[in-house]
Write a structure and sequence with these properties.
Length: 109
C-alpha cells in the first residue's frame, strides 16, 4: 500500500511542483502539514485525501484507506485496513469482468 509520502511525491510529479511549499499550496494545506507527513508524524485527513485522488485521477477510497492504515495504532488494525482495500478492489473488478464476459458471449463478433 502506498504511503502519504508516496502520494505527496506523486502529486508533486504530476503537477510539476518544485517544492513541498508548492505542494502545500496546491493541496490547500499548511506547509507544516507537509513537514509532518515527511517526518512520519501525520497522514492525510479525508479532505486532503480527496484532493490528492482528484489530482492523481484515482479512487479517493484508495488514498483514504492508505492514510487510515498508515495511522493505525497497531499491526492488526493496519492489516484490517489493507485487507479492506484488497477486498474492495477485488470485488469491484470481479463484477465488471463477469459482465464483460457475459456481454462478449451474448454478442459475438
Amino acid at each position: 500500500m502506498r504511503t502519504t509520502v508516496d502520494y505527496l511525491d506523486a502529486v508533486k510529479a504530476k503537477l510539476g511542483l518544485p517544492s513541498d511549499y508548492a505542494a502545500a499550496k496546491a493541496l490547500r494545506i499548511a506547509h507544516s502539514a507537509i513537514s509532518r507527513y515527511r517526518n512520519g508524524k501525520g497522514s492525510f485527513d479525508d479532505e486532503v485525501a480527496f484532493r490528492v485522488a482528484e489530482i492523481l485521477d484515482i479512487n479517493p477510497l484508495e488514498v483514504i484507506v492508505s492514510a487510515r492504515a498508515e495511522r493505525a495504532l497497531n499491526d492488526d488494525a493496519r492489516s484490517r485496513w489493507e485487507g479492506y482495500w484488497e477486498n474492495f478492489s477485488r470485488s469491484f473488478q470481479s463484477p465488471v469482468s463477469r459482465a464483460d464476459a457475459r456481454q462478449l458471449s451474448l454478442w459475438p463478433v
